[in-house]
């Protein structure tokens, strides 16, 4: 498997959004009320991805033989905001590679961050647990979006470098 990980080139934001949309529709939307699906479509856009570097965030993308198949995005230094792999490529370790790379990037580049947080979709809880996250509260529903709050300590050896600018 020739998997290449890189930071999102803003010109590729539409391709990354195509990954998000396909995976969201197949795996996450069935658990949401229509209001939540509409809100997700309204908020999660190519412009949102392009805004992340200005919000203490970044997006990593995974390409398999040149085709974009997955992405992981953080904001506010510590919050996993989007994490999607195309359904046909799930369960092959691509999410693990993306996530580990994102953790390393936070450890290298963001000071003062001791843990990562995520609002997990119901379907992804066991995957986040495999990635070291624990549930921190009961499931919530905000504007039709169902999520389970989770966090993962970064552990020693992190946060040794400079802030994002
Ligand atoms: C979440 C997602 C990005 C993970 O990507 P992926 O490529 O499928 O993940 P991987 O195959 O690398 O698996 C990651 C870890 O979860 C484990 N895992 C995978 N599927 C699992 C399942 N159904 N139950 C429990 N653990 C699972 C894997 O064993 C792996 O752990 P390991 O590295 O210790 O073996 C992907 O499944 C996805 O797009 N899901 C739908 C969208 C979604 O819900 N995203 C989260 C939004 S908050």
Overall body shape = globular
Number of strands: 8
Q: Which molecules are bound in this entry?
A: coenzyme A
CATH class of the domain at 3-113: Alpha Beta
Please tally the helical runs, counting DSSP H or I stretches of 4 or more residues.
5
Second rung of CATH, namely the architecture of the domain at 3-113 = 3-Layer(aba) Sandwich
H/E series, N to C?
EHHHEEEHEHEEE
| CATH fold annotation of the domain at 3-113 | Aminopeptidase
The CATH superfamily of the domain at 3-113 is: Gcn5-related N-acetyltransferase (GNAT)
Major sheet details: 8 strands, mixed
**Structural class category:** alpha+beta
Unreliable residue stretches: 157-165
Mean pLDDT: 93
The first-to-last residue Cα distance is 34 Å
Could you estimate the helical fraction of the residues in percent?
Answer: 25-40%
Beta fraction: 25-35%
Radius of gyration: 15 Å
Walkthrough of the structure:
The radius of gyration is 15 Å and the shape is globular. Strands 1, 2, 3, 4, 5, 6, 7 and 8 form an eight-stranded mixed sheet that branches. It has a domain at 3-113: Gcn5-related N-acetyltransferase (GNAT) (Aminopeptidase). The protein is of the alpha+beta class. The protein has five helices and eight strands. Bound molecules: coenzyme A. Coenzyme A (COA) is lined by residues 23, 27-28, 83-85, 90-96, 118, 120-121, 123-124, 126-127, 130-131.
């Amino acid at each position: 498997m020739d998997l290449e990980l890189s930071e999102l080139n803003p010109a590729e934001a539409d391709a990354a959004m195509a990954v998000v949309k396909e995976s969201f529709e197949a795996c996450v939307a069935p658990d949401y009320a229509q209001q939540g699906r509409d809100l997700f479509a309204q908020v999660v856009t190519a412009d949102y991805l392009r805004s992340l570097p200005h919000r203490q965030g970044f997006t990593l993308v995974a390409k398999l033989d040149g085709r974009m198949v997955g992405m992981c995005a953080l904001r506010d230094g510590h919050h996993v905001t989007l994490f999607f792999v195309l359904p046909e490529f799930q369960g092959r370790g691509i999410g693990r590679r993306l996530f580990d790379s994102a953790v390393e990037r936070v450890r290298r580049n963001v000071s003062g961050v001791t843990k990562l947080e995520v609002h997990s979709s119901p379907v992804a809880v066991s995957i986040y647990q495999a990635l070291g996250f624990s549930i921190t509260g009961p499931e919530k529903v905000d504007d039709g979006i169902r999520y389970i709050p989770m966090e993962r300590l970064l552990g020693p050896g992190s946060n040794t470098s400079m802030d994002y600018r």
